Amino acid sequence: MASQIVSDVSISELKRHLNEIAQYVRLSGTPEEAKAFDHIERELKSWGYDVKRYENDALIGYPGKSSLEITSPDQQTIPCNGYSLSPLTSDEGVSGELVYVGAGKEADYAGLDVRGKIVVSDGLAMPDKTLASQNAGAIAQIHINDDYIHEMCISPVWGTPIPETADLLPKLPAVSVTKVDGEKIRAAMADGTVTVRLMTQPYLAWCKIPTLTADLPGKTEDTFVMFSGHVDSWHYGAMDNGTANATQLEVARLIAERKDNLYRGLRMAFWSGHSHGRYASSAWYADTFWHDLNERCAVHVNIDSVGAKNAVVLSEAPVMPETYAFARDVLKDTVDVDLDYRRMSRSSDQSFWGHGISSVLASLSEQGIEDSEMFKAMASLLGGGAKGGGLGWWWHTTEDTLDKIDDDNLVRDAGIYAETLWRLCTVDRMPLDMAALADEIADAIDGYIGVANSALDLSETKELASNLATRIRATDLTKAPAARSNQLLMDLGRNLVPVNFTANGPFEQDLALGTQPVPGLREVAQLATLDPASDEFRFLKTKLIRQRNRIEHALRASMRLVSEFNG
Question: CB-based burial of residue 107 (10 Å sphere; 0-12 exposed, 13-18 middle, 19+ buried)?
Fold first, then answer.
């Protein structure tokens, strides 16, 4: 049964915040974004939160000026748009022959020689497409969108680059065109060789961006639940991310009115650099406050793009295996929706996996996938499942304005978040199913065994994970005081979440290239295809043995934790 806090969500308060925030074009680090942060800061202080506002250096980019001109066989100017963190060209731009590469993924380049050419691909620009074109020797990219051009960040580097990742920043100028103009380009290519001149002059510079946190302390445990969302936007960003910020503030107000009931604290977090710096603010915060987060953050709740018109699909809200049952209960109790399991994707400021922090929710409500072909494409982009169709045709466009918001859906989504945060902050025993987390690790390892073809022995690793799941499930957490049981759950998460969600944790950020369960072993299938006598096989096997050791170390440490708890 839902709490009273759900009924107390105020549409007038939500719209007050939304109207204040969505009146600004909130490019990262700009005075307009700062005005939105000013509103957020004033409101939180008025409710008694301990507010801290930081500035950090970040590499920020947004499109600026771009042009695309067909130079032969016939001259024609094509409207286009550049990308965040894209490199700039000279005023003359780059010129070259066009080559069509389908979806633009690595496999689409098989049999094609695109060296010195400009590649044309279907769909939205994504980091993996950028890397594929660079690796294949192309000199520029053109991405064919749908009826609208969608703003994107094409860098695969999560947050501020380090020496080992700086070389992965985009090197090729890139632009997007609409479907109509893309069809013109494709038609010209069908008749023969086409050459174009492409120019991009984006904003790309180091600048100061804000991060804001606000705390209410718990009355019993010195831990906190972090509720985060980004403030920066593409254009007016009413849905992305104005409604999320409005929801954060409304939840903050409602919980402040009930602060005497908090078992653990609430930390509100507002990021910049999400859209224009590949999660630069949350990645900076993850580095700067690593120990505080690792030692005290119980759960991370994220919010992105809620309350939209026609956003009727809530059954595929993203979760981790250990937070699925909790989120399922919240959805059932608040809106009578049966939640499917949709694994958290590598997006939405998920900068805290290396810390071992469990996460729940991000983009909660989506369009119905049957509404249009466009939504089907967006479902794939955003990790949508069988039902969810993305965040609306206006997502990342100039059309993300207040008229795309539905009052009833906004109140509904805000109520779900209010209930989520209320339960997480007030229950004495954390609702984390660590046996389910161990199960997912065991299942993933079993899958790797199936493709390893005996190239790497993972049988003991699988057995460790399966035994751990059994031991956790058999442990009675109620036999000990809540504080001790909660500490066990957090300690298990610190061991197991990095194994299940990162290849480089705990102190590095994986690239923004998607994830899969136990990603440290994802190259096992490649190992099985190599000649065991080759250098390449031996090099890769050594890497994978080290990953196996990392995983087994976490599993063994977790088994010891459970044994000590059971005494």
Answer: exposed
